């Protein structure tokens, strides 16, 4: 990882949350922030460590996950630019309840947590925006938990395909950014079961897949599998 210049016009234009701050608040954030560049697979924050900064993803892609017993890992989400990282931990506890690492080269803005909370206390509009972000993250985790508890594997794999197509890439053609093992962790299954289900989808001409390159051939069937579970 490495520090980089914080306030070039190119980088600053990506701070979408600045629209909720006045000039004084923006200057306060500037004075108590820095951008860190991470390489692919670099650890950004670690489960069970203290939360000292608020993190905002400027560029790249980040996976958040939690490790349990016997090294078993559950991936919660894939975060894309203009997202705050680890909000559930930052406002719920003084330690990170899960970890985050860079899927590819990523730039992360680190903001002093005390300064960040100071701005929240004085700016109701910004507080409302953050409350919405925390709620969306919580609801996303709830939906994923319900899916993994009540849906059969084809429904969960369909959910994953829709997640990448509709949320991450906004295209029916995309490249899986994770390994097969990580994709299985995201879907809540084993690597072998996940690969077998993908193969069945391909044989049924629901998708076309070549390595990590995916094309959804029948969005209607994928959505039906997701809905029926």
What is the tally of beta strands?
12
Give the helix tally: 9
CATH evolutionary superfamily of the largest domain: Jelly Rolls
In CATH, the architecture of the largest domain is Sandwich
Helix content: 40-55%
- First and last CA, distance: 41 Å
Radius of gyration: 19 Å
Q: Which consecutive residue ranges, at least 5 long each, have pLDDT under 50?
A: 3-13
The name CATH uses for the topology of the largest domain is Jelly Rolls
Please explain how this structure is put together.
The protein has about 230 residues and is of the alpha+beta class. The protein folds into 2 domains: about 1-5 and about 15-140, Sandwich (Jelly Rolls); about 150-229, Orthogonal Bundle (Arc Repressor Mutant, subunit A). About 45% of the residues lie in helices and about 25% in strands. The protein is built from 9 helices and 12 strands. A 5-stranded antiparallel beta sheet has the order 1-2-9-4-7. Strands 3-8-5-6 form a 4-stranded antiparallel beta sheet. A hairpin with a 2-residue loop joins β11 (about 205-210) and β12 (about 215). α6 (about 155-170) crosses α9 and α7 (about 180-185) crosses α8. The protein is elongated. The chain starts with a strand and ends with a helix. Residues about 5-15 have low confidence and may be disordered.
Task: Describe the SSE topology.
Layout: E1 2-4, H1 9-12, H2 23-31, E2 33-38, E3 43-45, E4 53-59, E5 62-67, E6 73-79, E7 83-85, H3 87-92, E8 99-102, E9 106-112, H4 113-122, H5 124-150, H6 153-168, E10 173-175, H7 180-187, H8 191-203, E11 207-210, E12 213-216, H9 219-228
Antiparallel strand pairs: 1-2, 2-9, 3-8, 4-7, 4-9, 5-6, 5-8, 10-12, 11-12
């Amino acid at each position: 990882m490495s520090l980089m210049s914080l306030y070039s016009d190119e980088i600053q234009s990506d701070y979408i949350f600045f629209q909720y701050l006045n000039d004084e608040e923006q200057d306060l954030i500037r004075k108590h922030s820095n951008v860190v560049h991470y390489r692919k697979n670099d650890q950004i924050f670690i489960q069970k460590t203290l939360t000292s900064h608020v993190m905002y993803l400027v560029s790249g892609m980040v996976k958040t996950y939690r490790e349990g017993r016997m090294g078993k890992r559950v991936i919660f989400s894939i975060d894309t630019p203009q997202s705050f990282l680890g909000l559930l931990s930052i406002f719920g506890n003084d330690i990170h309840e899960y970890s985050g690492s860079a899927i590819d080269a990523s730039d992360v803005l680190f903001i002093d947590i005390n300064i960040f909370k100071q701005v929240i206390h004085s700016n109701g509009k910004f507080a409302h925006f953050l409350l919405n972000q925390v709620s969306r993250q919580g609801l996303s985790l709830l939906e994923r938990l319900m899916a993994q508890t009540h849906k059969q594997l084809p429904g969960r794999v369909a959910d994953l395909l829709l997640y990448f197509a509709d949320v991450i890439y906004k295209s029916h053609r995309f490249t899986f950014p994770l390994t097969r093992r990580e994709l299985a962790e995201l879907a809540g299954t084993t690597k072998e079961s996940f690969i077998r289900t993908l193969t069945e989808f391909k044989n049924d001409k629901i998708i076309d897949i070549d390595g990590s390159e995916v094309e959804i051939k029948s969005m209607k069937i994928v959505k039906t599998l997701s809905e029926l579970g």
